[in-house]
Design brief:
The complex is a heterotrimer of chains A (307), B (313) and C (347).
Chain A lengths: L1 H27 L5 H6 L6 H10 L6 H13 L12 H36 L4 H15 L2 H15 L13 H30 L2 H8 L4 H39 L4 H10 L3 H29 L7
Chain B lengths: L4 H4 L21 H17 L1 H18 L36 H37 L1 H15 L3 H12 L5 H28 L2 H8 L4 H38 L10 H8 L8 H28 L5
Helix pairs in contact in B: 2-11, 3-4, 3-11, 4-5, 4-7, 4-9, 4-11, 5-7, 6-7, 7-9, 8-9, 9-10, 9-11, 10-11
Chain C lengths: L8 E2 L2 E2 L7 E12 L2 E13 L4 E5 L6 H9 L7 E10 L2 E2 L5 H7 L4 E4 L3 H4 L6 H12 L4 H14 L5 H4 L9 H13 L5 E5 L7 H18 L2 E6 L2 H7 L2 E6 L2 E7 H6 L4 H9 L38 H5 L5 E4 L2 E3 L4 H7 L4
Parallel strand pairs in C: 5-10, 5-11, 8-9, 9-10
Antiparallel strand pairs in C: 1-2, 3-4, 3-6, 6-7, 11-12, 12-14, 13-14
Helix pairs in contact in C: 4-5, 4-7, 5-7, 7-8
Classes of the chains: A mainly alpha (307), B mainly alpha (313), C alpha/beta (347).
């Protein structure tokens, strides 16, 4: 296990620096004037430009720039907006909201997704199976913002079950956006669980377990469950990334003042440095989460530990 | 991360197609591959999933190539006086803020979506096929390098990466720019699939026998590995078209994709969002068309997968 | 959970002390699939007594595994259905017992081991856990005690360093060791019958011998009946008291193993014996049985072996041969068994 962990860690490091470098390069190293590109249509006074040049070390060679930037990142400095306010402030303010939203969505999609997948898989070809297959397909197909608006219209306005925007009314305001955010992933999780379960139900060890005189409930619930969950757990790692992207859209649709909306606002107001800062932060979080899932995967599947 | 490639992919992807060992490596694999694909075609023809999605895709393709077939109105001919009209016999889908015929705009929106979808998928697949086969077949250092590079790409979620690139690099964002960005963001996933498919096919006995008979590597790849490894790629490529269309719409919706005066469903929806209550038709029609389009490609992908994966039969 | 179940009842019914351990009579199993109905088992009958080893011999598709699974009651249904016959364990009819009762017999009194221990064992649980599970579920023992018992069993099947290895996973063992784990698991509750479905096919020859001698030893110790399903003629000769040769879902020859070997009374058995490469007889070429096994979706009328039989006559395509008595303890399903057995008179 230790060897596996060390290897993962060693693989993580070049990827970490590679990805952050990539983002950095895309923003600061493109031909033309990066400051102008970041500022968009805005015309910046020279003093501001000077400040920016200084702040981001634009006169240094590229790798030094990057080095200083990453140095800043490790100290929690993700850049400032055009008025000099650090992005970190924005992160501190908005992050908790997005985390709440993401956790709710995650919980929703994992619990419902796995249950739906199991119900569909144990009775393959049955009514629930077909229901799950069709509904997940529909949910995957409808783009998340369309889904969001429809949910707003139907459940928020028409039926009045949920508030349509903002989170002033506490947890209640998070529910609908969390469900929308988690919906596509729920569909994938349900399908993946179903397929994995079906495959495992055909496995030889199921026959052995049955021959041991174990009840069907135990064979499915304990023996196949753990094996079936392995690919699902792997998926959850990638899912975090899509959750982040989806959060941007969902927070925009439902007007939730989270990190995702901050990215959107940054785009709208043409605050390029804010956008880059938040994205860098999110990417780092994503990579670390992936690493953690790799560890979890080894815990679940003992065969992996010896690779 | 290399070994879990296939499990990492979200949709249920088929195993590489397993064709029983071929005795001689000298004959082209055409005979065998013909029977698999011919078999699949026979199966497909009967399935409702395939027929329905096939019809939808044909209609959408027609819409993209020949919008004039569906509407004679000019989507850019707008009369402010007609702003925000409800659907009626004159304007089937109503009009938008500027008074343009919404039906025409919706139909014309198909062109952008389908074009980007097909273009991006084709390009990503091509890159992935070339690089992926090399990585999968030769293994070793080449494979490790390519794998690390794709890992870096994977570390950046699509929408986030799209926002950054599109915002920073391009001041004008037309079809080409958006497509380029989506290709750049999309090829790693396809590559992973090709690579693992090739790696699995490479292990098959008939490849060993071809090699033992002295067939050169390039020929082995082309004649024996490709036809079999390609099946899951076909499935995934079809689904990817749908995913890309959805991604473009999302980016346009967020304001980092196509810009006006381009006609994109995502853009139309983004404009519509402030008026959902007063003019829901602005949201409804592009939303519907977008959903149906993505749905047909994903459904088609599912149908292809069921037909091409012998394990599921 | 109750302590060790009384062994004089099965499914709540009293056992018949005079009855053989297991009597399978005219067993029929079908698989209903899209393409039609596969008649996997077509009237199989045999009996097993205490301390006895019955070998069920046949090619792939002969129905030998399905027959055993029907005895265990683990056939996937759908698409499989037991459509006829009887399986009597110590005189008590198993088919038709409620599932809960059958489950009490399964693993507990009739146990089964399978061919490939790597896929037959659950890869994500340790071997100790899997063996101990028998005690936890069937006997209600607490976790620690169950694990102790598991270690004892592992020692009994001669797995070295059993205590340390109880926490290891199946993929960490060699093929032979894995098979011992399966045997340990199967024997944990002292079953009266052990069904071994091709237990050594996936193993090296030397390991095969070890496993077979282990099984023989354990059988001696416990007095259990052993049903050995195999296609390996050599193994059968070594260990079996009775042999049941199966073809197309039913037995075509049945009797004590050595006489059947030396003087087969059925063309199929004869073909099997002849196909063995032998050290003492000098031959230029191997002699396989020509043709291939029948399509179980459409078994031809008359004798199912006719297409491949060197002795085939007209009668063979008209009438399915009944089981004729070759001697008091042997039967053969061939119209012309006398002719067949005369072929070997000199051997």
């Amino acid at each position: 296990m230790g060897r596996y962990l060390t290897r993962r860690l060693l693989q993580f490091i070049p990827v970490f620096f590679g990805a952050t470098l990539l983002i950095f390069v895309m923003v600061w190293a493109i031909p033309g004037d990066p400051i102008a590109a970041l500022a968009g249509d805005r015309v910046l006074p020279d003093s501001v430009r000077e400040q920016i040049r200084d702040r981001y070390n634009l006169d240094d060679p590229l790798l030094v720039q990057y080095g200083k930037y990453m140095g800043g990142v490790f100290q929690g400095d993700f850049g400032d907006d055009f008025r000099g306010r650090p992005v970190t402030d924005l992160l501190a303010q908005r992050l908790p909201i997005t985390v709440r939203l993401a956790l709710l969505a995650f919980g929703f999609e994992v619990v419902l997704g796995i249950i739906a997948g199991i119900l569909a898989g144990v009775r393959k070809g049955g009514f629930i199976d077909n229901l799950v297959l069709v509904s997940t397909l529909v949910v995957i197909a409808i783009p998340i913002f369309v889904l969001g608006f429809m949910a707003q219209l139907l459940l928020g306005v028409r039926f009045g079950w949920f508030p349509v925007s903002g989170v002033q009314r506490g947890l209640h305001g998070y529910l609908l956006p969390a469900m929308v955010l988690g919906s596509v992933s729920l569909a994938y999780i349900a399908r993946l669980t179903r397929t994995s379960l079906i495959e495992n139900l055909r496995a030889d060890y199921v026959r052995t377990a049955t021959a041991k005189g174990l009840s069907r409930r135990r064979v499915v619930g304990i023996h196949t469950f753990r094996n079936s969950m392995i690919p699902v757990v792997t998926f959850l790692a990638i899912d975090l990334g899509s959750l982040m992207g989806g959060a941007i859209i969902t927070e925009t649709v439902f007007n939730i003042p989270g990190l995702g909306r901050a990215v959107f606002e940054g785009v709208q107001r043409q605050e390029g440095t804010v956008v880059v800062g938040i994205v860098t932060f999110l990417v780092v979080v994503y990579m670390v989460a992936n690493l953690l899932v790799d560890v979890l995967y080894a815990v679940l599947d003992p065969r992996i530990r010896y690779e | 991360m290399s070994d879990r490639d296939r499990e990492r992919l979200p949709t249920n992807l088929p195993a590489p197609v397993a064709i029983p060992p071929e005795p001689a490596g000298l004959e082209p694999a055409v005979g065998r591959e013909g029977s698999l694909y011919a078999d699949a075609w026979r199966q497909l023809r009967r399935r409702p999933m395939f027929i329905v999605s096939g019809i939808l895709i044909v209609i959408l393709a027609l819409m993209a190539v020949w919008p004039g077939l569906f509407t004679r109105a000019d989507p850019r001919l707008c009369d402010l006086a007609d702003s925000l009209l409800r659907p009626s016999r004159l304007h089937w889908f109503g009009t938008d803020v500027q008074g343009c015929d919404y039906y025409a705009r919706t139909i014309w929106g198909a062109r952008v979506s389908i074009t980007i979808g097909v273009l991006v998928t084709a390009a990503s697949t091509l890159i992935a096929l070339v690089l992926g086969s090399i990585a999968g077949y030769y293994g070793g250092i080449v494979d490790t390098v390519i794998a690390r590079i794709t890992d870096i790409w994977f570390a950046i979620p699509t929408i986030l990466g799209g926002i950054v690139i599109l915002r920073s690099i391009f001041s004008t964002r037309g079809l080409l720019q958006v497509s380029l960005v989506l290709i750049v963001l999309g090829w790693p996933t396809m590559l992973r699939l090709v690579r693992s498919s090739v790696m699995a096919t490479k292990e098959m006995d008939y490849v060993d026998s071809a090699r033992a008979l002295g067939v050169r590597n390039f020929r082995i790849i082309r004649r024996h590995i490709m036809p079999n490894a390609v099946a899951p790629v076909i499935v995934y490529a079809t689904i990817t078209v749908g995913v890309i269309i959805s991604a473009e719409a999302a980016l346009s919706f967020l304001g980092v994709g196509l810009q006006l005066p381009a006609i994109s469903w995502g853009l139309m929806i983004s404009v519509a969002q402030n008026r959902i209550l007063t003019a829901p038709h602005l949201l409804l029609f592009p939303g519907l068309f977008l959903s149906v389009t993505v749905f047909s490609f994903i459904l088609m992908g599912d149908a292809l997968r069921d037909a091409l994966d012998p394990r599921l039969r | 959970m109750a302590a060790i179940l009384a062994r004089d009842t099965v499914g709540g019914r009293p056992v018949d002390p005079a009855a053989p351990l297991l009597v399978v009579e005219d067993l029929r199993v079908e698989f209903r699939i899209d393409a039609g109905t596969v008649r996997a088992v077509n009237g199989l009958s045999y009996a097993l007594n205490r301390r006895e080893t019955v070998a069920i011999l046949g090619e792939s598709g002969s129905g030998k595994s399905v027959g055993a699974q029907a005895v265990m009651g683990i056939i996937d249904s759908p698409p499989g259905f037991v459509t006829g016959g009887s399986v009597r364990f110590r005189g008590v009819e198993l088919l038709g017992l409620p599932e809960a009762e059958r489950r009490r017999v399964r693993g507990n009194r009739i146990a089964m081991i399978f061919q490939d221990a790597l896929t037959a064992l659950n890869p994500v649980f340790s071997v100790g856990w899997q063996i101990a599970e028998m005690f936890r579920i069937h006997r209600g023992l607490p976790r620690k005690e169950a694990l102790e018992k598991a270690v004892e069993l592992m020692e009994r099947v001669k797995i070295p360093s059993a205590r340390e290895r109880a926490g290891s996973y199946p993929h960490e063992f060699s093929g032979g060791m894995r098979q011992r784990v399966m045997i340990a698991m199967a024997l944990s509750l002292d079953p009266e019958i052990l069904i071994a479905d091709e237990p050594t096919t996936a193993l090296d020859v030397t390991v095969q011998a070890q496993i077979m001698s282990l099984l023989a030893e354990l059988q001696q110790q416990t007095g259990m009946g052993l049903i050995l399903i195999t296609h390996d003629l050599g193994v059968v000769a070594e260990v079996a008291d009775q042999v049941v040769v199966m073809y197309a879902g039913r037995e075509v020859e049945k009797g004590p193993s050595l006489p059947v070997y030396h003087r087969p009374a059925h063309p199929y058995t004869m073909g099997l014996m002849d196909s063995l490469p032998r050290r003492d007889v000098h031959t230029e070429r191997l002699r396989p049985i020509k043709g291939s096994p029948p399509d179980l979706l459409a078994i031809p009328a008359g004798c199912p072996f006719r297409p491949r039989c060197p002795f085939a006559r007209e009668a063979c395509s008209r009438e399915e041969p009944p089981l004729a008595a070759v001697s008091p303890d042997r039967v053969s399903a061939c119209h012309f068994w006398e002719e067949v057995s005369r072929e070997r008179a000199g051997a």
